[in-house]
UniProtKB/TrEMBL annotation:
<keyword id="KW-1133">Transmembrane helix</keyword>
<keyword id="KW-0472">Membrane</keyword>
<feature type="transmembrane region" description="Helical">
    <location>
        <begin position="27"/>
        <end position="51"/>
    </location>
</feature>
<feature type="region of interest" description="Disordered">
    <location>
        <begin position="211"/>
        <end position="233"/>
    </location>
</feature>
<feature type="transmembrane region" description="Helical">
    <location>
        <begin position="179"/>
        <end position="201"/>
    </location>
</feature>
<feature type="transmembrane region" description="Helical">
    <location>
        <begin position="101"/>
        <end position="127"/>
    </location>
</feature>
<feature type="transmembrane region" description="Helical">
    <location>
        <begin position="139"/>
        <end position="159"/>
    </location>
</feature>
<protein>
    <recommendedName>
        <fullName>Membrane transporter</fullName>
    </recommendedName>
</protein>
<keyword id="KW-0812">Transmembrane</keyword>
<dbReference type="InterPro" id="IPR036259">
    <property type="entry name" value="MFS_trans_sf"/>
</dbReference>
């Protein structure tokens, strides 16, 4: 759901109508703080989460206390999605209640969202055969775009339903918040799908390796160049 698209407007409306929640801080500072928290979460997640996934896969480093597992990437993918769902709810509930908790929700969302993007791409490349990876990435981007295109319009329609004919700023803010809160099941469904990926990951990896091995055998020359040179001698 396009929460990031609405966040600047929601933050401004929250600041104007619930000033006590922002502890007397000016809006430019609030805007800078929220941006820094979101970007900081993404920057940390871009390095920390792949490192932890590789550590779990090999049973070393930060995850040396766990046995090595080939499911490391889908495990972190699923937990990143669950963590993002928690951040999603935290942002919506805390933006009118507490600036520190709202900023923490933005940091959590940046951290988890970065993990989702990285592991989504990595898993796609791993489970797709070598000669199908370009098509797999194209299909991945297409499906994401198809899901994103109508989402802003859907949220706007739902928020208009809750707001009714009111022109009050608080009603506008609460209408959008309710639209996102009442569609909380979408991030939950996404998390469930990530756990389904976890269930079939090993089978898909083995299938991709079998296809790659079969393609290598089909394209391999019947007689190696070394053998041909020996025959001519």
């Amino acid at each position: 759901m396009p929460l990031a698209f609405w966040l600047p407007s929601l933050t401004l409306l929250s600041f104007e109508n619930y000033p006590d929640a922002f502890l007397g801080v000016s809006f430019p500072i609030v805007s800078s703080l929220t941006t820094m928290m979101a970007v900081g979460g993404m920057a940390i997640g871009a390095f920390l989460l792949p490192y932890m996934a590789q550590s779990l896969e090999s049973g070393s480093g930060l995850c040396s206390c766990f046995p090595p597992t080939p499911l490391a990437f889908p495990i972190f993918y699923a937990f990143s999605s669950a963590f993002e769902t928690l951040a999603y709810i935290t942002q919506l509930t805390m933006m009118t209640a507490s600036l520190p908790l709202y900023a923490a929700g933005l940091f959590m969302n940046g951290l988890a969202g970065c993990g989702i993007q990285l592991f989504n791409l990595q898993i796609t490349l791993i489970v797709a055969p070598s000669n199908k990876r370009a098509s797999a990435l194209s299909l991945l981007r297409l499906m994401a775009a198809i899901g994103d295109l109508p989402s802003a319009q859907i949220i706007a329609a739902i928020s208009d339903y809750f707001r009714g004919d009111s022109t009050d700023a608080v009603d506008r803010l609460n209408g959008v918040r309710k639209a996102f809160l009442y569609t909380w099941f979408m991030p939950v469904v996404s998390t469930i799908m990530c756990f389904i990926v976890l269930r079939f990951y090993k089978r898909d990896v083995e299938k991709a390796r079998e296809i790659d091995q079969s393609d290598e055998e089909e394209t391999a020359p019947l007689i190696s160049e070394k053998a041909q040179g020996q025959n001519f001698e």
